[in-house]
Specification:
alpha/beta; FAD/NAD(P)-binding domain; protoporphyrinogen ix oxidase, domain 3; globular; 18 helices; 477 residues; 19 strands; single chain
Length: 477
């Protein structure tokens, strides 16, 4: 069976790996338009000074089905010895901050914290649970709503303004007032709709049906997952940076005789013929494929099928993405007055940055300071216009590092990356749109599968699992 995989980011690489190494497909052709594999995962290593800059994702959560799946992949790739965990007792796991009203505020990380007043909140967070438990749900059943609306309605406006809005900035660089509640809280939303409140839903669902794991008999924890639970990993990365993962995948695929890896290979059109192979135009040359797995951003895929399937194309292009600027700063001495994972800035503060990650604190870079500043997202053009230069972004980053962290020295080294259209925005109605997209593909019997960040989750765990599920649906065991 000849299969074409479009896109050489982590999802496309994983799809090719599952096809060729795990499922042992006859022929896999992987096409990547850029000059490198790995997508948004990109690590710059300074061997001389002993630090790294991450331009994109830097850590992974070892939680749930998707987290277990990634750890299983790490085992298959024999990368267990490269795992660098941050445990729950580490300061980077316990201390996460938000910047509100010109102050850094430590977010509660345990039950004790939820029982007392923590600025900027005017009440202990458990008041939100009380509000939810005794509150009435809307008489009109909702199919979807924004995560801001849901949180404000169930737990209070302060939690929505400070905690949830900041978290959405950190995860998808988006506006919580637009992002679907199903993006992060699908299970909680469904419990609230069914039982009248989130907390009551959790309690009643547990009493009636047992734990989530009990309801998922297919969930088989891997040895590495069990190790993560026993040692209480909060997050983890890999030695040499997260780019180690796509690089090892690339090396494994290069060793396989059934895989053809192709860089600088830009797909311009996909044509589907009834009962026949798909025709994929790469750099002006048409290639035939029995099946196509696309890990491309949906807006790119929409252009490839627009000539033949305009309805599908219109749905795909409605999944918008945002631009994010990532500025890495390195200082040769420890300048941080605060220890922790970093800080997020809620949109109500009206600042051009989304947050700052304290890399040197997270990853044991002693006697130095390494920071990552994230800017833009939903508000990129508002703050920086359509085409900002690197110096403009660097100055914004340094200005806000000075304002928030009181670090006014010039960095010894820096890196500016502008990530165009890097994070899809799961706005209200996103999940219904994805259902329509997949139904169209199924109804029209198109030899096309979808994976990647545009559909079922934007995290590293999500896109790896999406690749596996696409392969398993195409080639059941």
């Amino acid at each position: 069976m000849s299969i074409t995989v479009l896109g050489g980011g982590i999802s496309g690489l994983t799809a090719a790996y599952y096809l060729s190494i795990v499922r042992k497909t006859t022929k896999v052709n992987l096409y990547e338009a850029s000059s490198r594999f790995g997508g948004w995962i990109k690590t710059d290593i300074n061997d001389k000074e002993g630090y790294i800059f991450e331009a994109g994702p830097r850590t992974i959560r070892p939680k749930g089905l998707a987290g277990n799946n990634t750890l299983e992949l790490i085992q298959l790739l024999e990368l267990e010895n490269k795992v660098w965990p941050i445990t729950a007792h580490h300061v980077a796991a316990k201390n996460r901050m938000i910047y509100v009203k010109n102050k850094l505020c430590l977010m509660p990380s345990d039950i004790k914290g939820a029982l007392r007043i923590n600025p900027p909140f005017s009440k202990p967070l458990y008041y939100g649970a009380i509000k939810d438990f005794f509150g009435w749900k809307s008489k009109k059943r909702l199919d979807d709503e924004s995560i801001y609306s849901f949180t404000s309605r169930r737990f209070g406006k302060e939690i929505a303004d400070y905690a949830i809005s900041s978290m959405i900035c950190g995860i998808c660089a988006g506006d919580a007032k637009e992002i679907s509640v199903k993006f992060l809280m699908k299970n909680l939303f469904e419990k609230e709709q069914k039982f009248g409140s989130v907390l009551r839903g959790i309690i009643l669902d547990f009493l009636l049906n047992g734990s989530e794991r009990t309801k998922s008999p297919s969930f088989q924890p891997t040895p590495l997952y069990r190790k993560a639970q026993i040692e209480r990993w909060s997050i983890y990365t890999l030695q040499g940076g997260l780019q180690t993962l796509p690089k090892v995948l690339e090396n494994k695929l290069e060793e396989s005789e059934s895989v053809s890896l192709n860089l600088n290979s830009n797909c311009k059109k996909i044509t589907f013929e009834t009962g026949g192979p798909a025709k994929v135009m790469i750099n002006g040359i048409t290639h035939k494929a029995e099946h196509v797995i696309s890990s491309l951003p949906s807006i790119q895929l929409s252009q490839l099928v627009s000539h033949q399937h305009p309805i599908l194309s219109n749905e795909l292009k409605m999944i918008k993405c945002v631009d994010v600027a990532v500025i890495n700063l390195h200082y040769k001495k420890d300048l941080l007055d605060y220890q922790g994972f970093g800080l997020l800035v809620p949109p109500m503060e009206n600042l051009p940055i989304l947050g700052i990650i304290f890399d040197s604190c997270c990853f044991g870079m002693k006697d130095r300071t390494v920071l990552t500043i994230m800017c833009g997202g939903k508000w990129f053009e508002k703050w920086f216009g359509k085409d900002p230069n690197e110096l403009q972004l660097l100055n914004v980053a340094m200005e806000n590092v000075g304002k928030i962290l009181n670090i006014h020295e010039k960095p010894d080294n820096y890196k500016v990356n502008i990530l165009k259209d890097c994070i899809p925005q799961y706005v209200v109605g996103h999940h219904q749109r994805v259902e329509r997209i997949r139904k169209y593909i199924e109804d029209n019997k198109l030899p096309l599968s979808l994976c990647g960040a545009s559909y079922d989750g934007v995290g590293v765990n999500d896109v790896i699992l999406s690749a596996r599920l696409a392969v398993e649906k195409l080639m059941p065991v």
